[in-house]
Amino acid sequence: MATSAVARETVFALRRQIAKIEGTLPERLQAPAGAPVDAPRNPTADVTPQDPTADVPPKNLTIVRRGLAVAPPDAFLRTGAEGLDTSLGGGLPKAALSEIHGAATRDAGAVAGFALSLVSLILKQGPRLPVLWIGTAEIFREAGFPYARGLHRLFGIEPEQLLFSEAPRLLDALWTAEEAARMTALAAVFLEIRGSPQRLDLTATRRLHARAQSAGRPVFLLRQAGEPEPTAAPVRLVLSAAPSAPRQTIAGPLAGSIGRPAFTVSIGKSRTALPGQFTLEWNPDERSFEERRERRQEQAANPVAVVSASRRGKDPAPASGAVLAFAAVGSPAAGDQPSPGERAAHRRPRRAG
Questions:
Q1: What is the mean pLDDT of residues 82-104?
Q2: How many helices (H) does the chain have, and how many strands (E)?
Q3: C-alpha distances in angstroms, 251 versus 43, 134, 187, 258, 299?
């Protein structure tokens, strides 16, 4: 009986160790007060019954279940959007690797804008330390760099607080990210990668996740135009641009205006949340996200896109015929009307010979 118990405890200890290596159980989060926690015992020690009246010392442990995460309030970065934060169990984990995925290269601007919004939230809550943005020469050539004046106006980020590191190869970018992730002098580390390179595998992402846990700082992996491959990141968000709503005034929405930047955020992967999709608007004045609920209700009521009618008439214009770059030989120019004689000649049948 004792041998069977020792074998069972050994298997459980090995499973916990494998789960910690794979990042299945985030660390540094405490269990709720009063919850009994069984500490792993030495398999070679004698199995003795535990006294139920003995005081159990507090253990650093996280209880992660589907739709439930027991953690301290300061362990997550809250976005301000109640629906997204609730679905994620409190927000994005601070001491962890988080993945922000863009399906195509044209979504690079939306992904970068969302990442800069997260930088603004991080600097708003904690000390205003610099942020390091790492990328390869290919991604900076395709997606470009953020605009300095826009950083200050929309996100409250000073240009000297955002540091860029351009690496010639992906291997150099990964090495720079691993070394920077252990530094406590940085508020956060961003690694932007394009495509699905072979070196960006589970081993590389596990290193980044472990460094983020050790330093207690977030590391964000920005994926542009890549396949959703397995990574060690506990959370993966899929980003795309959303249509901006009109500006709100005292008299109501201002027609023809462009409102706040909007993002379509989908939970592609999470250990504590179910998949979901949200439309978030960035408030540059409050430095927080706001969930757009009216558009979601409107789309549910009218799932089919509506095309507005022509402004010059009640009915839409008929479909045009063949469009030529140059007028056909012998045909009247565009906008010219044939004379009455020409109209009658066109009506008569043409004689042969």
A1: 92
A2: 9, 15
A3: 73, 45, 42, 16, 24
